[in-house]
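Recap slide: Nematode resistance protein-like HSPRO2, sequence and predicted structure.
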Amino acid sequence: MVSPKNLHVTIPEQPLNLSVSSPISSSSSAACSAYDHYLRLPELKNLWSSLNFPHWTTEPVLKPALQALEITFRLILTVGSDTRQYINRREWIRRLDLLATSQIKLVATICEEEEDDESVAAPVTSTWSSLSLLPEIATCRTTESIGKKILSTIENEMRWCKYTLGLGEPNLAGKPYLRYDDVCCPGELHGLKNNPYSDHIENQENQMLYTIHQILESWIYVSLNLLNRVESRIEQGEFEKASSDVYLLERIWKLLAEIEDLHILMDPEDFLKVKKQLQIKSTSRNDAFCFRSKGLVEMAKMSKELREKVPAVLAVTVDPTGGPRLQEAAMKLYSMKNEYEKIHLLQGMQAVESAAKRFFFGYQKLVAAMMGSAEANANRTAESHHETCDSLTQVFMEPPYYPSLDAAKTFLGEYWSNLGCNGRH
């Protein structure tokens, strides 16, 4: 155990005390309702939450993930059929290939983590899906190359799973196919392919915007179910499984940034035109566009609230006098290494914090690039203790979510910096 004797430790200064007590909050009710209506979220949520296999514990997480992937297939066809000569079609295809690959990797990880209990096993069959859009992509002249690439990716990424997706991949191992059509419900999903304004807004970017955000919201729903599962597993002492889930959550935060970055490929004038047509406008500097997604706000709050599980992980109670009880327990855990699954979990929690803050920082810069910094109204930072900044900036300027872990690592870092690698004392 590390001894603090005669060791001077420099604890990091606290960041600025920003004026808004809760920077993560939804936009106005009217703005959120308009966002939900545009994306047909009530109907989409019904598809995410309609579970056809109640004994299959993975379905609440895997189902919306597969639906996000299927909506991505729709976006690929939308790009492939876009008749505008001036769009950056080559980069669109590259980005969508990367996006599909990222999602397939996440889907494969979710499938790999399934329990071995046969009573809660995934529903499988011996036949391919007949409703997915991927076979059409793989045979369409404008999208054939990316379609075949995706099929190869599925074959490769699902190699450690007990089954494969059944979307036309080679399946050289002869594994059973997931009952994809029953789980994903692609027929009902593609019934939502048109947004409420598609019949009177003649702008191709309208469909792009709509589809991108449906993918985004589907993964947000996956994350909310994952976060609930993390809390449950920590309460049950299943720290290794909880660790796997928090690293999945970190990857989803990064995926959300990847999805949002697709906006930069939209034609600037067409995008700003559809923004006007849809009457998308920020009403104040604390009305970041992303906060119109109630799901994203909830995901951010729940990600932050993971810090409340640290005492349970460290098996100590918070010192009501403000003493360093949690810090000392964390230092002991890091030093002894006899409960490494807890270390993995705590590291994963901090990775989620980092990924979430990077998402909001990147989003701020993306909005400025797409709409101009004046419209985005999100480039202000606090230059003194008396100034305020917009709510989006405050999210990634918040103090560390895990001050006890931060202090423990600061102490250990100072210890090794001062004493060198002379062994533990």
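The two ends are 6 Å apart (CA to CA).
The first strand starts at residue 124 and ends at 125.
(End of recap.)
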